[in-house]
Amino acid sequence: MLSANIPLNKLSNTYFKQFLIKYTGQNIPDQTTLRKVNVDHCYQEVLNEIRQKVAGKKIWVSIDETTDAEGRFIASVIIGTLLLDRPGEIFLFNLEQLQKTNHSTICSLFENSLYLLWPDGIRRNDVLLFLSDAAPYMVKAGDTLKVLYPKMVHVTCTSHGLHRVAEQIRIQFPKVDKLVANVKRVFKKAPYRVQKFHTDAPNISLPPEPILTRWGTWISAVLYYSENFQTVKNIIESFDENDALSIKNAQKYFKITQMKGNLTFIHSNFACLPIAITRLQKQGIPLSEGIAIIQDISSNQLPTAICDETGTSFEFLIMEYNIHASVTGHRVNYTVKTNC
Questions:
Q1: Beta bridge mates, 90
Q2: Engineered SS bond to 221: which of 200, 210, 305, 319, CB 3.0-4.6 Å?
Q3: Residue 42 lies inside a defined structural domain of this protein
Q4: Final residue of a domain: which of 122, 156, 190?
């Protein structure tokens, strides 16, 4: 059940339990018994298997933190082997609840996880790469850990850097952001409006619902409005503004003179960002391909200063990406220089 990702509490379902008894011909123990007797055995078996696959190899470590549905800070530790001729194996190695997120708790999690991997003593010279996002506490944790791991290089996620650029674009175009947010609300839990949209525009999809924690989705939504501006505007204007505040607000933002120009500007200059983020998030891409993706963005000549509709200019976070990559034996130096 564990290997099939079936929760053990499903055994409390009478029909499921009877199904297992019928087709396995075995007595099925209670979920509590399985947790006390079998789960720890399965855990140790998998842990020993990972240790065997990592034995004698150089490794990389990645740590990421998120918040679960109950507001708890959950950190995950992924490790992988570094090989010269092909991508190594990757393992989700540890999950731990943190009391708070700072560089100290991340360093403790890093140390505890590697002690779990090497209970006889951490092989500090075998850890060559630490990958994380660019959060300040992660950067500080990387600086601290490099003292303990002399051969380790800390790399912040390039996809996260591009996402921060996309977030800066969203901040600098607040009215475009308001348009995207209000049109999203117009069709939320409104089957009549959804039906009307499909009737009036059968060849295009509903307006996307960007999620700020999913990298690049806001830029993708702006591209949609840029390509379908007049169609979506006509449909929104056909609704009664007294039906919902979101309709009234969406109609107001569609009437702004600079709106279409701002959408076109973002489309023309930043359409490459969500594509690059998606490509960089793929597993197993060669280092050369990752470098080529960033070089493609640099060749697009992204604007370094933009005048928004109030006439205020600002410097963009993405001024340059200088990538220096060298592989000497197992030693990897991979630095992304960016102002984000």
A1: 80
A2: 210
A3: no
A4: 156
